[in-house]
């Protein structure tokens, strides 16, 4: 069983009325992988997670979790989830709620361990409806890890958490992945995806636009930023700068030039060929956020 994929989507389509929320999605997740699911609002991230939880059924195609239907995998206690929506039971204490989740799980962890790992040991005796937003998120996280799950699904898990809570959260998730669990999380925090995920999926209108490591996705977006200063920029030089090869953007302001290039090596080579002497030359890759914007905007332009 161990070689089996944690998740397999095969040609999955799901519509709500006229809206194709998921459109022909094919993808595999392997045990031990931490995977970020990115996409603009309405891209189909939550729908994808719902399908994995058996909360919706695909119109066509198949979703398998450890080789079974999502429902079977959940009944067997293999899937833990932390979703955006859904209120928590309020009249009970944090410990009581976590204990209930552990009692209901086919393969429960110890209540004390769950509380400690989620960083809520100190607030275990508080009523759930008296918690701050960030504390509530930690409790949701505890509920998602009440049992020994093999797949953990997280929908924007760190929304509302402070920096310390976020770091503790991702450290715990990393441990879970190191123990062979697959972790799939939807997020709008691209720096988090960049830092945490082994693999990044970019969804757009229900389709998979990119699938790779953060470094691969940045490289795929291609462009690099180049910045330098020149002693003097007259109109003739400005014209020649505009004709540098592989330029995708150029901004000249006083003595400083900022540009984007699809092939920075070739652009910088040609720049020296103009007989000028750039000072303070910097070449930098795009961040995941810029790469994400570049990829999704290119797709918008293509399908417009
Ligand atoms: N229950 C529903 N009924 C009707 N339309 C829905 C329903 N759920 C989702 N949709 C539509 O399906 C599309 C995908 O929505 P989904 O919530 O999966 O996107 P998302 O990527 O999670 O977005 P966000 O980043 O805003 O949370 C959207 O156009 C949304 O309006």
UniProtKB/TrEMBL annotation:
InterPro entries, alphabetized: AAA+_ATPase, ABC_transporter-like_ATP-bd, ABC_transporter_ATP-binding, P-loop_NTPase
Ranges in coiled-coil conformation: none
Membrane topology category: Peripheral membrane protein
PROSITE patterns: ABC_TRANSPORTER_2
Molecular function as annotated in GO: ATP binding; ATP hydrolysis activity
Swiss-Prot/TrEMBL keywords: Antibiotic resistance, ATP-binding, Nucleotide-binding, Transport
CDD domains linked: ABC_DR_subfamily_A (cd03230)
Major location (coarse): membrane
Gene3D superfamilies, sorted: P-loop containing nucleotide triphosphate hydrolases
GO cellular component, one term: plasma membrane
GO term, biological process aspect, one: response to antibiotic
Annotated ABC transporter domain residues: 7-230
Listed name of the protein: ABC transporter ATP-binding protein
């Amino acid at each position: 069983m161990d070689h089996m994929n944690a998740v397999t989507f095969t040609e999955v389509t799901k519509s709500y009325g006229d809206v194709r929320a998921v459109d022909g999605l094919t993808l595999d997740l392997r045990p031990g992988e931490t995977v970020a699911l990115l996409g603009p609002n309405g891209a189909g991230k939550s729908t994808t997670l719902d399908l994995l939880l058996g909360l919706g059924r695909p119109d066509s195609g198949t979703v398998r979790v450890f080789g079974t239907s999502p429902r079977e995998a959940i009944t067997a206690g293999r899937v833990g989830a932390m979703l955006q929506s859904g209120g928590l039971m309020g009249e009970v204490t944090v410990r009581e709620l976590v204990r209930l989740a552990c009692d209901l799980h086919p393969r429960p962890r110890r209540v004390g361990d769950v509380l400690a790992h989620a960083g809520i040991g100190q607030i275990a005796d508080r009523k759930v409806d008296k918690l701050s937003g960030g504390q509530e998120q930690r409790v949701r996280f505890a509920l998602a890890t009440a049992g020994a799950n093999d797949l953990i699904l997280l929908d924007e898990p760190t929304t509302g958490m402070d920096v310390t809570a976020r770091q503790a959260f991702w450290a715990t998730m990393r441990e879970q992945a190191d123990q062979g669990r697959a972790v799939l999380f939807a997020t709008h925090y691209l720096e988090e995806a960049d830092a945490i995920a082994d693999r990044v999926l970019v969804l757009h209108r229900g389709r998979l636009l990119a699938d790779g490591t953060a470094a691969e996705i940045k490289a795929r977006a291609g462009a690099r930023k180049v910045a330098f200063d020149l002693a003097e920029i007259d109109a003739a030089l400005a014209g020649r700068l505009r004709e540098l090869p592989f330029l995708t953007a150029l901004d000249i302001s006083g003595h400083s030039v900022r540009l984007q290039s699809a092939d920075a090596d070739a652009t910088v080579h040609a720049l020296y060929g103009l007989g000028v002497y750039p000072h303070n030359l910097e070449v930098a890759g795009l961040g995941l956020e810029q790469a994400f914007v570049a990829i999704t905007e290119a797709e918008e332009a293509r399908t417009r």
